[in-house]
Specification:
By secondary structure, the protein is an alpha+beta fold. It contains four helices and four strands; from the N terminus they run H-E-E-E-H-E-H-H. Strands 3-2-1-4 form a four-stranded mixed sheet, with helices on both faces.
């Protein structure tokens, strides 16, 4: 897991370089620790692990942007759309006929 300072720097850089970023706190599950997920208005996103859920909330709140619990809100549609477009670009670039 990256250090706290590196994580906060990455999250702040994402917020500073994109428009309309919102944070989503993802709880721990069987395979991963809690995470902070940032999603821009374009749907572009980044995710970083946190040592515990409280730390994830604190890190997100320090960014000064809206923070949501993904268990209650779900993932934003713009993120799903971004992932679909990115998947399409990867498939196209891997297609030898393209």
């Amino acid at each position: 897991m990256p250090g706290r300072r590196a994580t906060l720097e990455h999250l702040q850089a994402f917020v500073s370089s994109r428009v309309g970023v919102e944070a989503y706190v993802e709880p721990a599950n069987r395979d991963t620790p809690p995470t902070v997920l940032l999603v821009a208005t374009t749907g572009e996103w980044t995710r970083r692990p946190a040592p515990d859920e409280r730390s994830a909330w604190k890190a997100a709140e320090q960014l000064g942007i809206p923070v949501y619990n993904v268990e209650f809100t779900g993932y934003p549609q713009r993120m799903r759309d971004w992932n679909s477009r990115a998947r399409g670009r990867r498939l196209t670039s891997e297609d030898p006929q393209a």
